[in-house]
Amino acid sequence: MTTFTFARTDNSVVGRWWWTVDRWAVIALTLLIIMGLVLTLAASPAVAERIGVDPFHFVRRQVAFLVPSIAAMFVISLMNVDQVRRLACFAFVLTLAALAATLVIGAEIKGSRRWIGVGSLSVQPSEFVKPAFIVVSGWLLAERQRHPGFPGGILSVLAYLAVVAILLMQPDFGQTLLVSMMWGTQLFVAGLPMVIVFALAGLATVGIVGGYLLLPHVASRIDRFLNPEAGDTYQVDRSMDAFMSGGLWGRGPGEGTVKRILPDAHTDFIFAVAGEEFGMIACLALVLLFAFIVLRLLARLLQETDSFVVYAGTGLVCQFGLQAFINMGVNLHLLPAKGMTLPFISYGGSSMLALAFGMGMLLALSRTRPGLGGYR
How many CB atoms lie within 10 A of CB 161? Predict the structure, then answer.
């Protein structure tokens, strides 16, 4: 019996990829995807039953989304730094146009226009514009350092304003806040003067206050978070019931009961399903897996000398980690309610494909290259 391995002297495309990619990050992402399939299998049948479709309707759709997502992540991770930059620039122009199109042709759902139809599918452009924007911004900031006369900082600001302006018009305050945090982290890593960093933090605070005062749904979510008696907290209450029901070790696969009445159990509140059926131990393992991926890739970026790779990679890691933190924080009632998927765990085609796009670029940027200490 033989095993399939790559020799270090293998010069094929896949062979070079295997010995230069961060294999521990790949393994961790694979485990995350497997856990996502298990949790989709646990959470989605109850949702399918409520809406009158086949019990495995969402499972089959998730697998259908997962196959092209994994393929895209692998193909993108084969790219070199220049190819990643060009791909991100093209994707940013395309996704920004699609994001703007939601204001005109987007379907209105719960008072927001965030989705556009592509054939029989619905696509959320904001999911794709996030990784594209952060890589383009990283390139602009890096060019600003390499060529002092290049207005990279100003162009980065203009790109940011274009993205958040459209997001606020949809409106999507949560995605606006996430993009702002990603971009702010990138600016901090890029070494902008602290005066500018604090000024931007002040503007962000003004933006949050403005969102509270001008957007009723934002005010309602914050009020309900600070004072549960201020409005309906059904989703968060059921989420907490799920964690309490699961205890330390969980009720067992398929044995959850709260998930049957938990809205969005297969998407925004899938972490609560993990708590009910697999217990706190499994939830901690999931948290540690996310933390490992974030810290592993950040440690890899610390060894990098290319400023573009550092800025773009840090922004992509920030997006991945913050999105997981926000989702889990909402499930545990540590943050105000916000519809945001748990990366590679929650059901959702746009989210899955966009995350694969972003992580593919991150794996490509973090690959070992000549001059970075050999193979890793």
Answer: 10
pLDDT of residue 374: 38
CA-based nearest residue to 355, from 333, 309, 323 = 323
285 C-beta neighbours (distance < 10 Å), count: 14
342-359: b (≥16 Cβ within 10 Å) or e:
bbbbbbbbbbbbbbbbbb
Calpha distance 117→105 (Å, rounded) = 9
CB atoms within 10 A of CB 185: 19
Cα 189 to Cα 355: distance, rounded to the nearest angstrom: 22
d(CA 354, CA 83): 18
Tell me the pLDDT tens digit for each residue of 45-62: 989 988 888 989 999 999
Q: Residue 20: enclosing H or E segment and its boundaries?
A: helix 13-20
Cα(292)–Cα(287) distance, integer angstroms: 9
According to DSSP, residue 177 is labeled: H
Q: 85 vs 368, which has greater pLDDT?
A: 85
The reported pTM is 0.91
- pLDDT, tens only, 149-166: 899 889 999 999 999 999
Coil vs helix vs strand at 256: coil
Structure tokens, 241: 């019931």
What is the layout of strands, in order, in the sheet containing 107-109? 107-109, 112-118, 121-123
Phi, psi of 107 (to 5 degrees): -75, 135
Range scoring the smallest mean pLDDT among 209-213, 230-234, 312-316, 331-335: 230-234
The 3-state DSSP composition of the chain as helix, strand, coil percent (nearest 5) reads: 70, 5, 25
Tokens read off for 98: 């699609």
User: In a 3-state reduction of DSSP, which class is residue 31?
Assistant: helix
The per-residue DSSP string of 116-163 comes to: EEETTEEE-HHHHHHHHHHHHHHHHHHHHHHSTTS-HHHHHHHHHHHH
Helices (H), ranges, 78-124? 81-105
